[in-house]
């Protein structure tokens, strides 16, 4: 299931934070590409597993994450989630967020 197909109930804003917010979401599946031009995003897995894919130097860099692990996605870096299994994740996400379906251009 892609993010665009997920019910809005899968995502909840917990609190505003700086120019974005703290979010918690719960889902299985994969997401489209996204990036945050105004700041780093913190992604922490609370339950389940996922692979966070960063688009770095025109290639996919994969990071498997399980409960209690986190990654900081650098400002402006395209990234997506793949193979998420019963994933409950907390993010600190700056806004705006840009989305795309296709792999980013080099």
TrEMBL record:
SUPFAM superfamilies: RmlC-like cupins. Residues 29-92 form the Cupin type-2 domain. Transmembrane segments: none annotated. It comes from the Bacteria. Pfam families: Cupin_2 (PF07883). InterPro entries: Cupin_2 (IPR013096), RmlC-like_jellyroll (IPR014710), RmlC_Cupin_sf (IPR011051). This is Cupin domain-containing protein. It comes from Dyella mobilis. The lineage of its organism: Bacteria, Pseudomonadati, Pseudomonadota, Gammaproteobacteria, Lysobacterales.
């Amino acid at each position: 299931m892609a993010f665009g197909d997920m019910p809005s109930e899968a995502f909840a804003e917990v609190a505003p934070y700086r120019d974005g917010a703290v979010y918690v979401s719960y889902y299985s599946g994969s997401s489209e590409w996204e990036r945050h031009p105004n700041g780093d995003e913190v992604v922490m897995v609370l339950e389940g597993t996922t692979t966070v894919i960063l688009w770095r130097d025109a290639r996919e860099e994969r990071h498997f994450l399980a409960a209690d692990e986190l990654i900081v996605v650098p400002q402006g870096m395209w990234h997506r989630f793949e193979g998420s299994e019963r994933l409950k994740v907390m993010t600190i996400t700056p806004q705006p967020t840009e989305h795309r379906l296709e792999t980013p251009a080099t």
